[in-house]
Design brief:
Helices cover 28% and strands 27% of the residues. The chain is built from 14 helices and 29 strands. Strands 2-1-10-9-11-12-13-14-15 form a 9-stranded mixed beta sheet, with helices on both faces. Strands 16, 17, 18, 20, 21 and 22 form a 6-stranded antiparallel beta sheet that branches. Helix 2 (53-69) packs across helix 3 (88-97) and helix 8 (244-253) packs across helix 9 (263-270). The longest helix has 17 residues, at 53-69.
Length: 546
């Protein structure tokens, strides 16, 4: 039967009223509608490779057939060692067409960390986009060369395996409070709820052109790649070094309409503001930033320079599917020195500010932010106790306790002040728990105690680690161990040795004193290695080789 392209409806999260009544597709069939409507339209480009919508859909079916032949079935986990490449949507869709769970891990993960994650996940298959040696048995491994052969070979059809809405769709890992990576497991229903809720704000259409900056092992990639693709939009995958001038050039050259950038990257794109002009960024309709709260000075530049471009601040943890609150900033507030609000819940979501079991309604009173609704995760992978601690049912709605300290403004918008856990911080635009760094350091032989903090040095945040031990050699041993266990953005820039653990250094106030002493010394020296003696002296030292 021939299907007329104009008769094909896009998913119900389309803002076109004509599409709003259509049922959601199966998760593996996200791109079926755009592939039927615009088969030869370029869907995605990473600077080296591009695919049309028809190629994405056919490629996903072909890879799904191969995975099925390797025994991948409903509910199985398939790991992708993710890179910023145009082929990634093919792999995610192929996994979903098998009814399996998509688990993107950073291809640059240190070997020991990757091995630990694979041991926990027990994937049925692992896909890599590079030439590394297999990290699982050969019949479970799909490497770069074999993937290229599969995609360049004859097309194979594959029917999507049915999946219940509440079943797991993907797992995203990040640093967690337990001292090891935590995997947020989200359902197809949660992802589709997010698509519908957030596209009311983003307003992606088939004419949109989206710049994707987020790595595929981060959940924002679902927002800046798979969501717009499902509606027929074009996505450019940015793979170059994140320099402001380069990113601005791509925005202009690719006629980008939607820029989604974490606050750190948006600040780089903004620069001093002189290049943020309509002439250079002619097609830009929307700028959305999030993760960290954005510097009001950066926001004001965009509001002043491009007043007709919508500017949205989004906020929300992965545990509530990408983002769950937004605030559209309409005009410049030149006098503002405090952060703009994080706003109100997306359509279909709820937010409460709580003190213990009591809900706060009064403006200006601080409490913990709880977000609730269909976007809330299924739970943490293989950590049921953590799930039970942080996901609660209240009046029939599941809420995630974010740990973020917030309050209401007079107009009802929510303002973020801090996180209730001082060990939660932002590194390279990623929410990170310092306990994972400390746990890795404590696992090194000879370390009696370890103190981790983020301090300012040369106008940027860096990780500082103080190790207490009898042996100076431990500094080098710890550094070598962390290279094998932690991704680069989590590794300490400053390392200090405190000989032995005095009584004061084991107390919380003593730990703060050690960090303060190190921070002051780091401002006076270019060295990354220091010794903190019991008498209060701090001296830079040469790197100790292991």
């Amino acid at each position: 039967m021939v299907v007329k392209a104009e008769a094909v409806a896009l998913p119900p999260w389309s803002i076109d009223p004509a599409d709003g009544t259509s049922p959601p597709p199966a998760l593996g069939d996200l791109l079926v509608a755009p592939a039927l409507k615009w088969p030869d339209r370029t869907a995605i480009n990473d600077g080296d490779v591009s695919y049309t919508f028809a190629q994405l859909e056919q490629g996903a079916q072909t890879v799904a057939a191969w995975l099925t032949g390797q025994g991948v079935g409903a509910g199985d986990r398939v790991v992708v060692l993710a890179e910023k490449r145009a082929v990634m949507p093919i792999l995610a869709l192929a996994i979903w067409k098998c009814g399996a769970v998509y688990v993107p891990l950073d291809a640059a993960e240190p070997v020991a960390r990757l091995e630990g994650l694979l041991k926990r996940l027990q994937p049925v298959a692992v896909i890599a986009l590079d030439d590394r040696d297999p990290v699982v048995p050969a019949d479970c491994w799909l490497g770069k060369e074999q993937l290229a052969v599969i995609l360049s070979g004859p097309p194979v059809t594959h029917s999507t395996v049915p999946r219940r809405p509440e079943q797991a769709a993907y797992i995203i890992f990040a640093a967690g409070s337990t001292g090891e990576p935590q995997g947020v497991e989200n359902s197809a229903a949660g992802l589709f709820a997010y698509f519908g809720n957030h596209n009311q704000v983003l307003r992606f259409t088939a004419e949109s052109r989206v710049l994707s900056l987020s790595p595929f092992n981060v959940d924002v990639s679902l927002e800046d790649t798979l969501l717009p693709l499902s509606l027929g939009a074009f996505v450019f995958q940015f793979r170059s070094l994140p320099a402001g001038a380069v990113m601005r050039s791509v925005i202009g050259r690719e006629r980008i309409t939607h820029l989604i950038a974490v606050s750190m990257l948006l600040a780089m794109i903004t620069g001093d503001g002189r290049q943020i002009t309509r002439a250079k960024l002619a097609g830009l309709e929307l700028v959305m930033t999030g993760a960290q709260v954005c510097d009001p000075a950066v926001v004001n530049i965009w509001r002043q320079q491009l007043p007709e471009t919508r500017f949205v601040h989004a906020f929300g943890p992965p545990e509530a599917t990408v983002f769950s609150l937004t605030h559209e900033i309409g005009s410049e507030d030149a006098e503002r020195t405090t952060a703009y609000p994080i706003g109100r819940p997306l359509r279909g979501m709820k937010a409460k500010i709580m003190q213990g079991e009591a809900e706060i309604h009064e403006p200006g009173v601080n409490g913990e932010l709880w977000v609730g609704g269909d976007q809330v995760m299924r739970g943490y992978f293989d950590q049921p106790d953590e799930t039970a601690r942080l996901v609660v049912d209240l009046d029939g709605t599941r809420y995630f306790r974010t740990g973020d300290i917030c309050s209401y403004e007079e107009d009802g918008n929510i303002v973020l002040h801090s996180h209730g856990d001082e060990e939660v911080t932002w590194l390279a635009g990623r929410r990170t728990h310092l306990s994972e760094i400390r746990r890795a350091a404590l696992g090194c032989s000879g370390v009696d105690r370890a103190v981790v903090a983020v301090i300012r040095r040369s106008n940027r945040d860096v990780v500082a680690l103080v190790v207490m031990s009898e042996a100076r050699q431990v500094v080098a041993d710890v550094e070598a161990r962390l290279r094998g266990l932690l991704p680069e953005y989590m590794r300490p820039t400053l390392l200090a040795w405190s000989p032995g653990g005095s009584a004061t250094s084991t107390a919380e106030s003593g730990e703060r004193e050690l960090v303060q002493r190190l921070a002051e010394a780091a401002q006076q020296s270019n060295s990354n290695y220091f010794v903190l003696s019991a008498d209060g002296a701090v001296e830079p030292i040469e790197k100790v080789e292991s």
